[in-house]
Amino acid sequence: MEARVGSKRTKWSRRSHRKSRNGCGNCKRRRIKCDEVQPACGQCISHDVNCDFTVQQHALSETASTGSTEAPGSRSTLAECATPLPYNGFTFISSSKTGFKLPKRRYQRRQATARETANAKSALDEVLPTPTIAQLQLNTTDLELFHHYLSVTSMTLADDDEGMHVLQVALPQLGFRFHYILHLLLAFAGYHMARLPSMGAPHGRRLEGDRHHNIALTQVSSSIAELSESTCHAVYGSSVLICLCSLARGPRDGEYLAFSDSDRAEWLTLLRGIRSITEASRDVFYIDPVSSPRSTTEARLLEGKPRLCHEALGPEWKESLKECEHLIGIESTAGNGVQHAIYKHVLTCLTNAFVHVYGKTEIGRGERCARTFQWLYQLPDVFVLDLQQRKWPALLLLSYFLVLLQQLKSYWFVKGWPEHVMGEIYRSFNAQQRTWLKWPADQIGWYPPSTVDDA
Questions:
Q1: Whole-number Cα distances in Å, 260 to 273, 290, 416, 421
Q2: Dihedrals φ, ψ of 399, to 5°?
């Protein structure tokens, strides 16, 4: 028992070792034992790093040669030794006080061959999709236009929550798929900003609108040639936006909506282009910019058999329309029967438009706009040709249409157009014919200048 007790009380002594705090800084940071061999310890040599002993000896030698009184290991000396060292085109910066070089590799890395590089590139091409359309690039000015469209321009068009959703959500989302829609929205916003005196720089705003408008026209042209079920909605929407942009640019010399100084009216051609797209896509989806599919009145108008509505008109409007009908009747009956039937059809459609705009008490601004432009939308080709040739019966009916257009003055893009077109109609008439324009001119607030020639 005593032996056992004695054995338990035996204390195992640890082997003594020499403790030293004179190791190099690299070993201290790594918490490994330094052999303190100078001028470089074994650990630093094996890892190919600059040992503190070498740095200190280098500093001492330079101090002795220059006669400097600065202490070894001072800030200037250590800063010089801590200069980053380049390695294969890269620079490694050490966080320690001494310089640090990347440890050498045991084996050199083999350079990739040209074949291996080509194979890697082909494999990457298979993973990454190749864009089929040009990437949309927007600058800060474009973002400003888009912000203005969402926060200001869209609110000038919408009359209810549904319309606001279409303008602020549905159309921009469609524009992310079809970039020409987005370009047209930016163009429309640019023209709107050009019309606002508070925005400043109207010429520059208009130029930005023209830039996006021209880009969209190029892209829409290629889409029309490949009209399909997946693109017809976007093409139709772009056609409507193109017409709105043409109005938003403001009145221009030589352009008068339904006729022009050139071979054909730009805006009326665009509007009739919408009708062509609608007819081409009728079997694919239903588009009706005016009314619902159940509207029998719209169906009769599309069939070319309009019927006059029986709502009561105001005495002044009724008398003016009947006087216009009498003047055109005398002129058209002198010609062939086909021309008389065409003008009677156009006058009946115009009268129906007056009934819908003035004869109904509860009519929204959007429906009023649709009914107004419906008249231009459905003009026969023969009548359009007479407008372009500036025949007075056709221009007289157009002047009455301007009365309807003036009622849409709450839309900023309509402002200025009725007066602009009426002025050109007035200049196209002789002195006797100008007296027939008194009622429509008074309704839109246009008065002839005193210096207009009567020739």
A1: 17, 26, 16, 10
A2: -65, -35
Q: What is the pLDDT of residues 159-205, one digit of tens each?
A: 888 889 999 999 999 999 999 999 999 999 999 999 998 888 889 99
In the structure encoding, which two tokens stand for residue 391, read together? 């025949």
Backbone torsions φ then ψ of 90, nearest 5 degrees: -110, 155
Tracing tokens 């649709």 back to the chain, one arrives at 370
Query: Would you report the helix, strand and coil content of the chain in percent, each value rounded to 5?
Result: 60, 0, 35
Please give the Cα distance from 47 to 410 (Å, whole number): 81
Q: For the full predicted model, state whether its pTM sits above 0.70.
A: no
Decide if 270 contacts 246 (C-beta within 8 A): yes
For 180, half-sphere exposure in the C-beta direction (CA atoms, 13 angstrom radius) is: 24
Q: Does an H or E element contain 432, and which?
A: helix 431-434
CB-CB contact of 349 with 399 (8 Å):
no
Q: Which residue has the tokens 């040599």?
A: 45
- Give the separation between CA 395 and CA 136, rounded to whole angstroms: 44
**250 close to 390: Cβ distance less than 8 angstroms:** no
Is 60 exceeded by the pLDDT of residue 390?
Answer: yes
Nearest by Cα to 441 from 396, 408, 411: 396
| 200 three-class SS | coil
For 308, 324, 332, 350, 379, the CA distances from 337, given in Å and listed in that order, are 21, 19, 8, 20, 18
Q: What is the DSSP string of 264-297?
A: S-HHHHHHHHHHHHHHHTTTTS---SSS-TT-HH
Length of the chain: 455
Name the residue among 140, 211, 212 with its Cα closest to residue 179.
212
Burial of 179 (0-12, 13-18, 19+ CB in 10 A): middle
Question: Is residue 455 a contact partner of residue 434, using CB atoms and an 8 Å limit?
Answer: no
Give the integer Cα–Cα distance in Å for 370 and 301. Answer: 14
For residues 440 and 401, is the Cβ–Cβ distance under 8 A? no
Query: Which residue from 372, 365, 384 is spatially nearest to 272, judged by alpha carbons?
Result: 384
Higher pLDDT, 110 or 23: 23
Contacts of 111 (CB under 8 A, 6+ apart): none
Query: For the chain, what is the total number of helices (H) and then of strands (E)?
Result: 23, 2
Contacts of 215 (CB under 8 A, 6+ apart): 180, 183
Exposed / middle / buried, residue 348 (Cβ in 10 Å: 0-12, 13-18, 19+) = middle
Residues 6+ apart with CB under 8 A from 285: 229, 232, 233
- For residues 243-256, give the mean pLDDT: 92
Q: Which residues contact 192 (CB under 8 A, 6 or more apart)?
A: 148, 149, 152, 153, 156, 248, 412, 413
